[in-house]
Specification:
This protein has about 575 residues and is an alpha+beta fold. The protein is built from 14 helices and 25 strands. Strands 1, 8, 9, 10, 11, 12, 13, 16, 17, 18 and 21 form an eleven-stranded mixed β-sheet that branches. It has a four-stranded antiparallel β-sheet with strand order 4-5-7-6, with helices on one face. A hairpin with a 5-residue loop joins strand 14 and strand 15.
Length: about 575
């Protein structure tokens, strides 16, 4: 449903053929005294914060442009949100009209790398620009700020430039995380109107730990920014990015220690790298999930009760071997999913949200790890629906007879069609016919919005480290709610239970349960309460069987084991200020 988060990432054929794969014990450090050399692909399209996507592009930008907030390594080694250019993280102030105000005080003595003062006015300029620029990467990230859509955000700077006041249209508990996004980084007032800003020219001022020393067709060189407020803790004096569009060549250069880090890794090399270079192969979440969506208004299942439909949908989900699908059908290093909210999303205490998901809250997800047991559970559910409805039968081997024919709607890209074909074969073994319709993307999106199918595909990725972007997809009134939860015949179905304010209420509709949970989550200022309710909402969603996660999107990269202090942010950016080579 959203754009993909990350882009794809000169040595001759001799290097490719002669490169030997060192074992773990022979891994050596990059050469002493050499710059920390990284390869992130063909190079950035821009260094403009307003035009930068998350992921690889963001790595270039977050190390040049510090925002109000940023990420540092916490006590457990994970990324922790901390003040950057602001002196402290402010508390939100509720206004009488329902809006919310944040007042940021900037650190003393902030300057740009060219020595010019860095003031709150630079944030006002940058945010208004990033929210209105025609080719901005993510102007919607500013939609939470009062005034969005009018051309002027409700963001003001004090006369002395030390204080930035921001008024949000309503409460947004993750606003401080948004402030760490590249789009929220300041730029010098007026400087971005110059032609050089969008050209491959290093003549602009930086606010972060590094500044640009050289930008050529071969690479990009950063040097430590002495004007950065925390320059004393920036370890590497020089960082060099090599531009190499062929990931196979980049991987080979890494293995002979020309590069300290290579991102991404070619799919064809993954099995070998897992065997011979496991300590150097790292995986990070893209904060995205690929799911099957079962329509609540599927004509093929209209003769069944809502309870029977949920049993059938859940059974169809349990029959899928997600590990086998990821190993044999989907390309790359995707991770089999047992819940809609992926790894990389934090919980209230900073731990992984996935560590506390599932019916028991112990992190097992909503599908067991034992595929054989899952199949037995699926057959039992199908048998229950068959017996209560009298519409079909299930024999001793779990094969159905008389089951209605289902339809599967997907786009025509090869990977999506391969998944559809695999499901068609799988369900066929259980006597369930699945007709697949593959359409070009524009037609597919229109057909999915129109409904009338049994199953379709859905993929979604988030821009912030918060479960709500995934949960809000399925609110009754959400445009992304392609399965019609809380709509049509399902709108009046009162089969859900919800707990709010310590009181449990049974026989609730989707609006009275799921929508009510989302409303409370969005309005709550209590972090522990928010996350407890979000776990409840995820469980409620999975009880419908309408959303069936297949895999989580991930990225893999290679990093020399002697490189220490590299921090992966929640949205894929690599923070380099602490990175160094340990001998």
């Amino acid at each position: 449903m959203k754009r993909a988060l990350l882009c794809t990432l000169i040595a001759a054929a001799l290097l490719l053929s002669a490169c030997s794969r060192a074992s773990e014990s022979t891994v050596r450090a990059p050469d002493a005294g050499a710059p920390l050399t990284l390869c992130l692909g063909a190079g950035p399209a821009t260094l403009d914060p307003a035009r930068t996507e998350n992921g690889i592009g963001a790595t270039y930008v977050v190390n040049l442009f510090a925002g109000l907030t940023g990420y540092r390594t916490g006590g457990d080694g994970a990324a922790e949100l901390t003040p950057e250019l602001c002196a402290a993280l402010p508390e939100p102030e509720a206004l009488p009209d329902g809006r919310v105000r944040y007042v940021f005080t900037l650190r003393d003595g902030l300057t740009w790398s060219d020595g010019a003062p860095l003031t709150a006015a630079d944030f006002v300029y940058a945010w208004n620009r990033a929210s209105t620029l025609g080719d901005a990467a993510a102007p919607y990230l500013f939609a939470c700020i009062d005034g969005y859509g009018t051309g002027r955000l409700n963001v003001t700077a004090s006369p002395d430039g030390r204080t930035l006041t921001v008024v949000l249209a309503e409460a947004m508990p993750t606003f401080l995380q948004l402030c760490a996004q590249p789009a929220y980084a300041p730029v010098p007032s007026g400087a971005t109107d110059a032609t050089s800003w969008t050209a491959d020219d290093a003549a602009f001022a930086a606010s972060g730990p590094y500044t640009v020393a050289e930008w050529t067709t071969e690479g990009l060189t950063y040097t430590k920014n002495p004007a950065y407020w925390d320059a004393d803790n920036v370890v590497a004096e020089t960082v060099r990015f090599v531009f190499q569009s062929d990931p196979n060549v980049a991987e080979s250069a890494f293995l002979v220690r020309e590069y300290a880090l290579v991102w991404p890794v070619p799919d064809a090399a993954l099995d070998d790298l897992r065997t011979n270079h496991a300590p150097e192969l790292r995986t990070v979440s893209q904060l995205g999930t690929y799911s099957l969506c079962f329509s609540m208004s599927d004509p093929a299942l209209s003769v069944f009760s809502q309870t029977e439909r949920a049993q059938i949908r859940t059974a169809l989900a349990l029959l899928i071997d997600r590990d086998a699908l990821c190993a044999n059908i989907t390309p790359g290093a995707q991770q089999s999913a047992n819940a809609p909210i992926p790894p990389g999303i934090s919980d209230a205490d900073g731990s992984a949200f996935t560590a506390h998901n599932g019916l028991d809250g112990k992190g097992g997800g909503y599908y067991g790890s034992d595929y054989e047991a899952n199949c037995k559970q699926a057959i039992a559910l199908l048998r229950q629906a068959a017996e209560s409805s009298g519409r079909f039968t299930v024999n001793a081997q779990g094969v159905c007879a008389g089951f209605p024919e289902l339809t599967y709607l997907t786009s025509d890209a090869a990977g999506h069609v391969a998944i559809a074909d695999d499901l068609q074969s799988l369900y066929g073994r259980y006597g369930i016919a699945l007709t697949v319709t593959a359409q070009d993307m524009d037609t597919f999106l229109a057909s999915r919005a129109a409904g009338g199918y049994s199953i379709t595909r859905c993929s979604f990725s988030a821009d912030i480290d918060d479960p709500m972007p995934f949960l809000s997809l399925w609110a009754s009134g959400a445009g992304s709610n392609c399965v019609a939860l809380g709509r049509g015949a399902h709108a009046d179905y009162a089969g859900y239970t919800v707990t709010l304010d310590g009181r449990t209420k049974d026989n609730c509709t989707w609006a009275e349960s799921y929508d009510a949970l989302l409303y409370r989550i969005q309005s709550s200022g209590d972090t522990a309460e928010r996350y407890s309710l979000m776990h409840q909402a995820e469980t409620l969603l999975m009880q419908t069987g309408a959303v069936c996660p297949l895999y989580w999107y991930t990225d893999t990269y290679l990093c020399n084991t002697h490189v220490q202090g590299l921090l992966s942010g929640p949205l894929g950016a690599q923070y380099l200020m602490g990175a160094h080579v340990e001998k």
